[in-house]
Amino acid sequence: MIVHLVNKTFEELGLGLEASVTRTLRAGDVRAWDAVFGNAEGASAAGQNRDAVGIVSALLAAAVGSVLPGPGSSILSSTVRVKAALPLGAEVTLRLVLSEKRQGGVVVLQATCVDAAGQTLATATLEVLAPTARQTIDFADHRLDGLVHRCKSLEPMLTGVVYPCSVDALGGAVAAAAEGLILPALYGPADTIRRLADQAGLDLSGCRIVACDGPEDAAMKAAVAAGAGDLGALMKGSLHTGQFLHAILQKESRLRVARTLSHCALMSVPTYARQFIVTDVALNIAPDTNQKRDICQNAIGFARALGIGLPRVAVLAAVETVETSMQATLDGAALAKMADRGQIVGGIVDGPLDLDAAVDAGAARIKGIRSPVVGLADVLLVPTIEAGNMVYKNLSFMSDAAMAGVVVGARVPVILSSRADTVAARLFSAAAAALYADAARRDPSILTPEVAG
What we know:
Elements: E1 2-6, E2 18-24, H1 27-37, H2 51-66, E3 74-82, E4 91-102, E5 106-115, E6 120-129, E7 136-140, H3 145-150, E8 157-162, H4 167-178, E9 182-188, H5 190-200, E10 208-211, H6 215-227, E11 233-236, H7 241-249, E12 262-268, E13 276-279, H8 289-305, E14 312-316, H9 327-340, E15 348-353, H10 355-359, H11 361-367, E16 379-381, H12 385-398, E17 402-408, E18 414-415, H13 423-442
Parallel strand pairs: 8-9, 8-11, 9-10, 11-18, 13-16, 14-15, 14-16
Antiparallel strand pairs: 1-7, 2-4, 3-6, 4-5, 5-6, 12-13, 12-17, 17-18
Helix pairs in contact: 4-13, 6-7, 8-9, 8-13
């Protein structure tokens, strides 16, 4: 999704003009300021240490540069006064009011930062050099809210939510239902589910509860129902991934098709301009060449379902040259040739490529690598689960990436979230699954492509 920013010039600005920005203060914001100020111990809450002034200043700088006056503005000075702890994981709103215009194109803004209840968290006075010419900036939205917006025209999927016995797991299902993405059938102990809903204030009126004895029973009952066509998707709750997937892989569930199942994680990283898919970070431990072919084909179908017409796949290794002592490089070369021969279809595949060349055309240029994939990779195919899991968790927990994770290659999409994932991650994953299911209905080649051999 592209965000359009348009500024207001000094001549257009009038006294009393207001603008506001709302955002959620994330753990990554606090960690960044901890690093800047040398706070090695970190903070349990954003407003309980000396980082708060810096965090508010950064939020105000973003507001000035985006809404008032907008692109082309320069902050000359700012005075920030923190009045209360900043809430971690909750929305805050920054309000800017133009209080004075001065000679030389300078304006004075009065700012307040308030929480969702309207409590004032901080105030500030800023002197800003306003732009004199119109500027418009288009940039990619680095969150994944656009996935949810694209699902507005789709019918909600009847989804088996397996063992939603934590607040985040149950809240993710309820949030997805509220957005019209799914119709939840909750498989698990009914008393526990209702008690969690009461404690968290969650409305289960649109949910059906299927009573189950435990996580294994819940997983098996939901998988069999999906295989029989009674459910359009499956969503992991708070049970272990192994328990969840074991049921899906059983013969009696009838969910497997000819290919290997694999996990696709759509990532949106604030410091990188392109969204991309990492695969496989959750299922296949050390896939062989044929399994990687299936993982590659699954990812191409997933990318196409999300709107990428001709996905570019980088088969990753530690180096970009073929080395007989490094199996990942042999697999990269083999998969690239398989794509040339029609054994993988629907995308452009190249490998082996190291990560920097796959995501940075400048790095590839320096190394002399010529490829239609370098710097433009839509899919990063990792050599092993360890490599993929580390890339995925590094981006999620250290780079504030947004993620949507789906298991593909089964008869229905499987929404596979970590037990540590947020409600937002579960919501985005449900949206990606809905788009995948809809695309597969309209174009069966996404799930069952015709390949050579």
